[in-house]
Fold each of these.
Amino acid sequence: MQFCKLFMLHFQENVSLKAYNTFGIDVKTSYFIEINSETMLFELLSDEIYLSHAYMFIGGGSNLLFTKDFDGLVIKNNLKGITIDEQDDESILLNSQSGEVWHELVLKSISLGYGGLENLSLIPGTVGAAPMQNIGAYGVELKDVFHSLKAVNLKTKEIETFNLEQCRFGYRESIFKKEAKGQYFILSVTLRLLKHPKINASYGAILTTLDEMGFRDLTIQNVSKAIIKIRSTKLPDPKQIGNAGSFFKNPEIDEDQYQTLKSEYPQMPSYLLENANYKIPAAWLIEQCGWKGKRIGNCGSHQDQALVLVNYGNANGSEVYSLAMDIQKSVKEKFNILIQPEVNIY
Ligand code: EPU
């Protein structure tokens, strides 16, 4: 018996990816398709074009640097839908399809009055990308609110569920960036949010910003507004100037190296970690090497946040990559610390 196809899969050919990466890099992909439903995804997984080409799934394109054209198929995740799955007196389980825009999910949870996502306001990208690198900001990481996720095993085509432990979250890390890299497509993410929110306003400038904005009450709405203000003041808006947020991860060094550097640079900021190592802000290291606000051709390090590399308009990906490598080299020479990209480079 022959099965008839439910959808006609609509592949576009020779498509520019400029609108699909927040760096605004103009490269081309041989094939491009948007996936609007699970059924469409499963149909794609048996399609000849998918089976015979290199492929790449993208969400919001906010953590990507393209250095060349992609000779394969780019699959844009457009799976939408947010539901409340379960609730008790304390909490709710909020389920979101992976193609939802992260910040829209945050705003929805705040408007419903559930706490947990307010510190993660305005992070670019989609819900499906959030567990990939355990997104984090202002003292909160995705793992703090994570319940589970559903993902398709691309080899077996089975849907698997991952709980918190199975995701092996670390600082900007998860199993999906390591052992299981390229093996799964995340379909949906479930978060546990609180009906009686616990406010976390101790990080950085949150309290002073709340004060400046005249907000007296520590509510999730106010904390979210303060974080939106801090982020919009410090981080360039990708719609105005191409960027992918922090380009490098903050490096971790051991106690010996920390003591040596601290005696030479007493003003060096640092955070003591549970494993007795120290995390050093990459932004500070980069600034000390003289890169902050420096422009090289069409790209540079941002004037207000040295860790954010920006495209002034017409940069190509290899220009940005070569700037990143020069920055990495000078930090290594000055501090003997190898800073590693946070952004995925293709
Ligand atoms: N600093 C500098 N120069 C700068 C900017 C900052 O010396 O140009 C110093 C500051 O003095 C401060 C320290 O660096 O002591 C930390 O700066 P900030 O609070 O801005 O945070 P960050 O460590 O640079 C991290 C995340 C951001 C997140 C912020 C806020 C990473 C790689 N980045 O940046 O995440 O928004 O904390 O929590 O962990 C992203 O991942 O794309 C991202 C923007």
Note: Residues 254 and 277 are 5 Å apart (CA to CA).
Amino acid sequence: MYDVIIIGSGPAGCTASIYLARNSLKTLLVAGYKSGGQLMLTTYVENFPGFKSILGPELMNRMKEQVISLGVEVIEKDATSVDFSLYPFKVFVDDKVFEGKRILIATGARPKLLNVDGEKELIGRGVSTCATCDAPFFKDKYVLVIGGGDTAMEYALTLAKFSREVTIVHRREEFKASKIMLERVKANEKIKFKVPFLVEKIIGKEKVEAVLLKNLKSEEKEMLRCDGVFLAIGHVPNTEIFKGILEMDEKGYIKVDSRFQTSIKGVFAAGDCVDSKYRQAITAAGDGCKAALEIVHELSEL
Ligand code: NDP
């Protein structure tokens, strides 16, 4: 029996693990097959205090090392289902079951898809959600980045190091991206903009060959040749295994109170699976810390 089982090993899960272990609580971290969360897919992080600039995977590896050094048990597999109907709570990992007095869900979020024709078929064959992972495959190619937020800008800058030309396709003329990122992109002569355009279809037999775009002002459609399409249109929470068990909002983000407690007492949630607004490594880490302290407080009162 564990005092706490944490599901998810991004900044929220790792920070919570550190606080729980340092309070001598027996803690299991179900880290997932792809442990480390979304920072494993990013390049330089320049807004995590204490690090002027650090690679996302490097930051997460350091967090994980710290977690392990404190004696937290780590399983590098996904939680497959949960049973929170009876105490102690159960977390299933394939055919194994783990029991915990308290649960902290920190499963984060994943990149959103456009849901247009051709997209699913061509994922891994020109359609990508990770420029850091796939940019080197597009050396001297023509690529598109879809979206107008910081992720889109970051992807465009990464791709510009390899590709011949990068075009940011965005559905509005205004951008959600921060001023500094937008300025860096505008200063890069390899990066062009196409706004306000919507992707209607991704075309290609073996690999991406073109996209069908719709101009949202004129309503006219046009075909744009390209070799790659990088999606940077936001995220969806990884909360499927908790559907019907925990209260969620209409987008699937888990509802918590000011103490990070979900609709089931003793089950907590923190990080991007809860937060659709801030979604920063530092806010996830901060919330993971707060949730862990709430758990420490609750267990010490038992
Ligand atoms: P955002 O939600 O900020 O941006 C998503 C973009 O995708 C928006 O421009 C949105 O358009 C567009 N979009 C959404 N759905 C669709 C659709 N179906 N079709 C076409 N376009 C669509 O997400 P990000 O991932 O960019 O950023 C998330 C958070 O992470 C932000 O807080 C950001 O600041 C942060 N971040 C910070 C970085 C850094 O500082 N280095 C790097 C990356 C992210 P619209 O604007 O019209 O809604």
Note: The radius of gyration is 21 Å.
